[in-house]
Write a structure and sequence with these properties.
This protein has 397 residues and is of the alpha/beta class. The protein has 15 helices and 15 strands. The protein has an eight-stranded parallel β-sheet with strand order 6-7-8-9-10-11-12-13. Strands 1, 2, 3, 4, 5, 14 and 15 form a seven-stranded mixed β-sheet that branches. Helix 6 links the parallel strand 8 and strand 9. The chain is globular, with a radius of gyration of 21 Å.
Length: 397
């Protein structure tokens, strides 16, 4: 088909929108076959079925490259407790925090987890997302981690969306291994990773490198197994402090280092050298009322690609809006609207190791969004407003 009468944001490089006014996109077999101005359409495409987009803006489809959308229960009650003055310690003693999500996820059936997750997936799709990365990490035992990954794989059969899975067994120390994190890594996390890989359930391996979770030596043991299995790695790094997670991610050539609020200039240089994407997560920054913003200027200076994601999860980022994520990134982190759009398209694709989407060019996947806006900056400018007109997935309207 031909998509005609469009204002096309190609994002062919990172310096401008690459806007083609009065543009045309030729789509064949779920791929972009040609893109250009209306006066330059090759003869071979002129007889294709045409869809007049009425002058609307077209961008690459959005990609949410860091989510935890599969989980049991919710933590609205502890949200209320905290706002009524309870400390995090008091919430934890009352059974709140990640322990409550782990408990709810362990007891939920696969069907229950899937139906609940689809409500969040639908919200992402409704704002133009065609690819979602989903992490395990709320089971923290062999059976539940595998259950989460199996549920995640089912999403793509229930909705028109692509899914990538990340094994996040090194997310937190479960209650039954309190004070024994090394035993958990060796006896539960690593054997479960091997089992998940054997089932074909893992696209990447993630970890939470933080004082309240696991140190660099413990994460390195998990990453060594990932390398052995031929799996790429990602890392939650420098969210609450700096204990060397970003440098570890760079050492392993990680696809991405995520959060990175406390990453310093040397960390930015290391990411640039390793080609690792910095994934910024303003939803968690906002929800936790953090004050240490990521060093966006350092990432710019050293040429580190910056991706954005919702971090949709039940505790620190109950956010399922990529458009609001863009606005938060601009308002809280001082990213530009162009950087925000690149963060949810081209750089998000890179953070997942994918080169066939995120920009509009011949040969790329025909995953596109058609918006009722006149300028791409409107996507980050508005708050609580969804201007999506059409979502195109694998070349289908």
């Amino acid at each position: 088909m031909l998509l005609t009468n469009a204002q096309i944001v190609t994002l062919q490089n990172d310096t401008d929108y690459g806007l083609i006014k009065d543009g045309v996109i030729a789509v064949r077999d779920a791929q972009i076959a040609w893109v250009g101005g209306v006066d330059a359409i090759p003869t071979t495409y002129r007889n294709e079925s045409a869809h007049n987009l009425g002058g609307r803006l077209v961008t690459p489809a959005l990609i949410d490259c860091h989510t935890h959308v599969v989980f049991g229960g919710n933590r609205a009650a502890e949200f209320e407790l905290r706002l009524n003055g309870a400390s995090y310690e008091e919430v934890a003693r009352a059974g709140g925090g990640i322990v409550s999500t782990v408990s709810a996820t362990r007891t939920a059936s696969e069907d229950e987890l899937l139906e609940d997750a689809l409500t969040r997936v639908d919200a992402l799709i409704a704002e133009g997302v065609t690819l979602i990365e989903v992490k395990s990490g709320y089971g923290l035992d062999h059976d539940t981690e595998l259950k989460m990954l199996r549920v995640t794989r089912q999403i793509a059969s229930r909705r028109p969306v692509d899914i990538r899975t990340s094994f996040l067994g090194a997310h937190a120390v479960p209650p039954e291994f309190k004070e024994k994190p090394d035993t958990y890594i060796d006896d539960i996390c690593i054997p479960t990773l091997r089992a998940a890989h054997a089932e074909g359930l893992v696209d990447a391996v993630d970890g939470f490198c933080e004082g309240i979770a696991f140190d660099t030596a413990q994460i390195a043991r998990v990453f060594d197994v990932a390398v052995e299995l031929g799996l790429p790695v990602k890392l939650h790094a420098e969210q609450l402090s700096n204990i060397g997670g970003t440098q570890l991610a760079a050492k392993y050539g990680a696809l991405s280092a995520d959060h990175v609020e406390y990453a310093n200039d040397a960390d930015a240089q290391a990411l640039a050298k390793s080609g690792t994407v910095a994934v910024l997560l303003p939803g968690a920054f906002y929800t936790l009322r953090e004050t240490q913003a990521p060093r966006v200027q350092s990432f710019r200076t050293h040429g580190v690609p910056m991706a954005l994601a919702t971090d949709c999860n039940p505790g620190s980022s109950p956010l399922a809006s990529p458009l609001l994520t863009m606005n938060m990134a601009c308002t809280l982190f001082r990213m530009t609207p162009l950087e925000a759009l690149l963060g949810l398209t081209a750089h998000a694709a890179t953070a997942l190791g994918l080169a066939d989407r995120g920009r509009i060019a011949a040969g790329a996947r025909a995953d596109l969004c058609v918006w009722d806006v006149t300028h791409p900056a409107e996507l980050a400018y508005r708050i609580g407003f969804n201007p999506l007109h059409k979502r195109i997935f694998k070349g289908s309207l």
